Amino acid sequence: SSSDVDKRFGDSLSLAKKDDVEIAVDEDFSFIAIADTHVHHGNASKLAALRERIDQDIAGGSKDKFVVVCGDVSQCGAAEDFKAFRDVFAKDPPLPVYTAIGNHDLYFDGWSNYKEILGKSCYTFKAGPVRFVCFDSANGTLGRKQKNWLEGVLKAKTEPLCVVFTHFELFSPEVTTIQQYTDIEEAYYLVDLFRKTGVNYVLMGHSHDYYDKEVGGTRYVNIPDFVGSQNYFRFFVENG
């Protein structure tokens, strides 16, 4: 069973706001992006290894401040999997993590578990000069309410840089890949919206493939699955 994107949007309005990331003025920083962790049976050992590596890098001088996850945190929406994921990044010292919801996270009424443990399905936060925006594509459609919200947030932003992240990819890297958006015009709408509002990067997952494509001045990066490849991306931000 799944849930309706409009209901998730409504639920998200009542959930706790996502905290901004405190970045000192003129401080350069970096963040980690991963996708499709598919935690299953409460086993987050691969993520624990990643967390250990990030901690070692920080101790060695890396300026990683937080982690962005492009959906499918869990394999089938189980509470134990969301908790195992959360606990990896909550261990002392805690590392902020911002997740997009994926289709696997909805399985078996997974939204009930997701919202309780990880929170909102769509939200925005700031880190230094960057406005981050996460939207919910887990049903392959935006829904009218979320569409209006997304357009409003992007048109109102004042930061010089903007990164959007979600689960379903907007472009198919292979001819055999099934287009995930139920209405192709919605995908075209998003590409046009991102161009008009000056979005710099769109980070996506789902297909378990890597590709990097620039359209209309916006760079679209599909991040390969972490569960199989253990690949992660580090993005560097020059602040000031």
Outline the fold blueprint.
Blueprint: H1 5-13, E1 29-34, H2 45-59, E2 64-69, H3 79-90, E3 97-99, H4 110-117, E4 123-127, E5 130-134, H5 144-156, E6 161-165, H6 184-196, E7 201-204, E8 211-215, E9 218-222, H7 226-229, E10 233-237
Parallel strand pairs: 1-2, 2-3, 5-6, 6-7, 7-9
Antiparallel strand pairs: 1-10, 4-5, 8-9
Helix/strand-derived category reads: alpha/beta
Low-pLDDT sequence parts: none
Q: Which percent range describes the beta-strand content?
A: 15-25%
**What is the count of β-strands?**
10
N-to-C SSE string, H for helix and E for strand: HEHEHEHEEHEHEEEHE
Rg is 17 Å
- Report the biggest beta sheet as strand number plus sense, adding barrel if it closes: 6 strands, mixed
Percent helix, as a range, is 25-40%
Q: Which strands sit side by side, in order, in the main sheet?
A: 4-5-6-7-9-8
What is the 3D form? globular
Average of the residue pLDDT scores:
94
Q: What's the end-to-end separation, in Å?
A: 47 Å
Number of helical regions: 7
